[in-house]
Specification:
single chain, 198 residues, mainly alpha, 8 helices, 0% strand
C-alpha cells in the first residue's frame, strides 16, 4: 500500500501518479481491470494513511492552534471529501482482503447520484465561507490552497468533478482522485498547524 510520512506535503511521485490517473481514465474503457485494481489499491492505501496518520495528528494540534476555528473548518472540508471517497469505495462492494476494491470497474450514474445525495457542493461551499470568515492575514496561504481545491474541483462553474466525470469514470478512479486531494489538503493543514506552533 502507498504510505506517506505525515509531515510530507504533496510529493512529486504522488502528483505524477495523480496526473497518470487523470490522463488515462476519461472513460471506463481506458484501463483494464488489472490496472483499475492497482489504482484501487493505491486509493485504499492512501485512505488508510489519511485516516490513521494525518487525522490523529491534526486533531491533537488544533486545540493549541492560534486560530482553531479556521483549522477546524479546513479539517471538515477534508472530511467531506473523505466521506465521498468512502461512499464510492463502499459502492464497489468494499475492500477485499488483498487491499483492492471488490469491483474496481464499477461506475456509471451512481457516481453522480452519491455526489448529489451527500450535498457535496453545498457543504463545501458553506465550509469555505466559514473558513474565509475565520481566516486572518497569517492564514492566507492555507486559505488560498483550500479555496483553490473547493472551487476548482467541486463548486466552480467549470469544476473538475462535473457530471461527465462523475458519471463516466470508475468509482475506484474517483476514489483515488478524491483521496489524493484530501491528502494534499491534510498535508497543508498539518504544515500550517506546525508552523503556527513554531
Amino acid at each position: 500500500m502507498l504510505k506517506h510520512s505525515p509531515l510530507n506535503t504533496f510529493i512529486i511521485p504522488v502528483l505524477g501518479f495523480s496526473l497518470f490517473a487523470s490522463g488515462c481514465t476519461e472513460s471506463k474503457s481506458s484501463l483494464g481491470e488489472k490496472e483499475l485494481k492497482d489504482l484501487s489499491e493505491h486509493a485504499v492505501g492512501m485512505n488508510f494513511s489519511n485516516r490513521f496518520d494525518y487525522y490523529p495528528l491534526i486533531e491533537e494540534k488544533i486545540p493549541q492552534s492560534p486560530n482553531p476555528e479556521l483549522h477546524q473548518d479546513v479539517l471538515e472540508i477534508a472530511m467531506v471529501i473523505d466521506t465521498l471517497a468512502m461512499k464510492y469505495m463502499e459502492q464497489t462492494g468494499g475492500i477485499a482482503e488483498n487491499g483492492t476494491l471488490m469491483n474496481p470497474t464499477m461506475g456509471g450514474e451512481k457516481g453522480i447520484d452519491i455526489y448529489n445525495e451527500l450535498h457535496v457542493k453545498d457543504k463545501l461551499r458553506d465550509l469555505l465561507n466559514k473558513a474565509k470568515e475565520h481566516a486572518s492575514s497569517s492564514d492566507k496561504s492555507l486559505l488560498q490552497r483550500t479555496e483553490w481545491i473547493v472551487q476548482n474541483k467541486f463548486t466552480g462553474e467549470t469544476a473538475y468533478f462535473d457530471h461527465r466525470r462523475l458519471s463516466e469514470r470508475p468509482l475506484s478512479v474517483l476514489s483515488l482522485e478524491l483521496v489524493l486531494l484530501e491528502n494534499y489538503l491534510l498535508a497543508e493543514l498539518l504544515n500550517s498547524l506546525s508552523e503556527n506552533k513554531e
